[in-house]
Each structure stands twice: as structure tokens, then as C-alpha cells.
Amino acid sequence: DTGVSQNPRHKITKRGQNVTFRCDPISEHNRLYWYRQTLGQGPEFLTYFQNEAQLEKSRLLSDRFSAERPKGSFSTLEIQRTEQGDSAMYLCASSLAPSAVYEQFFGPGTRLTVL
Amino acid sequence: AQTVTQSQPEMSVQEAETVTLSCTYDTSENNYYLFWYKQPPSRQMILVIRQEAYKQQNATENRFSVNFQKAAKSFSLKISDSQLGDTAMYFCASTLNAGNNRKLIWGLGTSLAVNP
User: Fold this and answer.
1) A81-115 pLDDT tens trace
2) Best to test chain A binding among B4, B6, B36, B103 (most A CBs inside 10 Å)
3) Would residue A46 be called left, alpha or beta, if left means φ above 0 and alpha means ψ between -120 and 50 degrees?
């Protein structure tokens, strides 16, 4: 399978614990995005990487959130001291730029439940 | 603020019929991209169709077509010959005001049910 993969698919944690999610983009894609989707809502942009450089972070991304993309390949999103409001689906997408298409390819998401 | 609005939270259609999903947006940009994504229950987001704002011709992908009205800032999706597998959440999204990073701004989605 050469699509975007995310692990784990589901994560249940207790409030206050730290969690880390991983995204493996399509291999030749240089751009990687993280979005958050809560029930009944559309995705919201969190952050974006061009290769290994994190070029933009949303105001939604509090100090408890950190994302990395070492070597410009896979990316990790860590949430420290989780809160119940962090419960959501975390989506990763990748794309190739420059491109005439600018299509983003999405992974299956990681569903986080904070108890 | 740049926004994408989907005013139909839920819609239903009979199998083999045609349905149109609405999307409007607000931007002062001239160059942007518009997309319709489909998210089946418990499955991942997949691209249905895209439209470049500088193209006047409406995009078409098999049974899916768009009605892009740039002046009206409208981007509706028409699904012809609806199939049971079309049942999903449909999201309208755009690169409005995204600068060079091309992040997507999303509507709230329309839940489409195709009935047998």
C-alpha cells in the first residue's frame, strides 16, 4: 500500500497523559499537513511541513501540542497533558509541491479519546 | 475571514437519481482551488473532484460534476445516477487565502444518504 498511513488508528488515554501519533506520507511527497476533526465538523488545519521544516502552526495548536518531521519523511504529533477537549480524529495529509494539482492525500486518521 | 459554507447538513436521494450538494465561499483572492472530498463512514477522506478557479470550464469526473460560479462564489457538486456506495459525508474545501502552503479550509460537511 503506497498511500498515507497513520498509527495508531485508535488511542484511548486518561486525562493528563501524553500521546504520540505517527504519520507516514506518500514517499515522494514533500508537504505534510495535520488536521483535527471533531464529530460533526469539518477538519481544521493544525500545522504544515515542507520537507523537515514546520512552516505554519494554527492558533489551535496550543503549547501542549508539538509536531516534528525529522528528515522530511514521517511525522509525529505529540499531545502533552491531554484534556478531554483533545478528543478528536487527527488527520494527516501529504502532497507534492510545486504541482499543478495541489491535491492532498489523506490517511485514515487517528481517533483519540481522552477519558 | 475566509470561509467555506455548506448549508445542507443532511440530504438523501434515491438510488439512480441525481442530487446536488451546495457550497459557497468567501474570499478576496483571485487564484485558488476548490475541492469536494468524500468521507465514507469510518473510512478515510478521498478526493472526489477539484476545480481551479482560473478555469472557466466546470470539472467533471464520471458521475460527478461541479457547477462553479466564480462571481457568485458558488461551487456545487452534482452526483448523477447515485449509487449506494455514494453514501458518505461530503466536504467542500478550498485553498482560500492559503498563501503558498495550500492548507485547506473546510465546510462543515453534508451527510448524504443514498436509499435503495
Assistant:
1) 999 999 999 999 999 877 766 789 999 999 999 99
2) B103
3) alpha
Phi and psi at residue A84, in whole multiples of 5°? -60, -30
- Strand, coil or helix: A85: helix
Contacts of B4 in chain A (CB under 8 A): 42
Give Cβ neighbours of residue A83 (< 8 Å, ≥ 6 apart). A15, A64, A114
d(CA A5, CA A33): 13
Longest dimension (CA), chain B: 44
In sequence order, what E strands does B1-116 have? 3-5, 10-14, 19-21, 24-26, 33-39, 46-52, 60-61, 64-69, 74-79, 88-94, 105-106, 110-115
